[in-house]
Amino acid sequence: MDTGNWSQVTEFIILGFPHRQGVQIYLFLLLLLIYLTTVVGNLLIFLVVCLDSQLHTPMYHFVSILSFSELGYTAATIPKMLANLLSEKKTISFSGCLLQVYFFHSLGATECYLLTAMAYDRYLAICRPLHYPTLMTLTLCAEIASGCWLGGLAGPVVEISLISRLPFCGPNRIQHIFCDFPPLLSLACTDTSINVLVDFVINSCKILATFLLILCSYVQIICTVLRIPSAAGKRKAFSTCASHLTVVLIFYGSILFMYVRLKKSYSLDYDRALAVVYSVLTPFLNPFIYSLRNKEIKEAMRRQLKRTGILA
Fold first, then answer.
1. Which of 34, 71, 108, 185 could covalently link to 192 via disulfide, CB atoms 3.0 to 4.6 Å apart?
2. What is the C-alpha to C-alpha distance for residues 63 and 118, in angstroms, rounded to an integer?
C-alpha cells in the first residue's frame, strides 16, 4: 500500500449514543444524575472508611480504595460523554483520545486487581480465621493495594504504544460512546491483526486470570461455609461476601464479553450497551451495593452524621 498519500488524522469525532431528535437533553440529565450520584456515593464511602476507626480493617481498606479508584475510572470517560451530548462538535484530539484510553484501561485493570485482592482477603477471613489477623495485616493490605495500582497503571502501556504507531489516514468517526481500543483499531488504515492479538492476550491474562483467582477463592469459601454446622454461621459468612460477589458478577459479566475476544467489534449497539454497563452502571451501583447491603458501613455513616450534627 502506498503510504505517501496518507494524511494523518489529528482528531476524532466520537459519535456517542444514537442520535434521536429531542432525546439528547434527557440523556444528558440522566447521565449527569448518575455521574453525580456515583461521585457522591463513592466519595462518601471513601471518607467514612477513612474517618471511622471501627472500619480500619483490611476488608474496608480495600473497599475504600476501590471507591477511590471508581472516582478516577468514571472521570476518564463520563465528563466527555456529557460534553458530547450537548455539543455539536464531538471531537477529541488524537493524544486526548489515547490518554482517555490509557486512564480508562489502567483504572479498570486496577479495579480487577483490587477485586481479586478483596476475594483473597475474604478467603483468608473465612477459610483461615485463626491465622487471618497475622496474615492479612494493614501493612500487607497497603502493599497489596500499592501493587494493584502499579500493575494497573503499567497494564495498558504496551497496547497504547502499539496503537500510537498505527496510521489513521481516513475515517475519523469513532462508533462508540468514548475512545477505546476496538473502535480505534477499526479506523486504522493498515492491518491491525497484531494489535488485536496483543489486546486479546493481554486482556485474557489480565481479566481471565483475575476472574479465575476470584472464582477459586469463592470455591474454597463455599466449601468452608458449607461445613459450618449452624445456619446462622452460614448466613454470617455469606453476608461478608455478598456485596463483593455482586460487584464481581456485574463488572466481569460485561468486560469478559467486551475485551476477551479476537474480533475487533460486534454490533455497534452491542458494544455500546456493554460499555454503559461497565463504565457507567457498575460504578453507579457499587456505593449502593456496599452501603445498603453492609450493616457496618451503614452504622458508620450514622456515627459520622451524628458527629457532624447532621443527624440528631
1. 185
2. 8
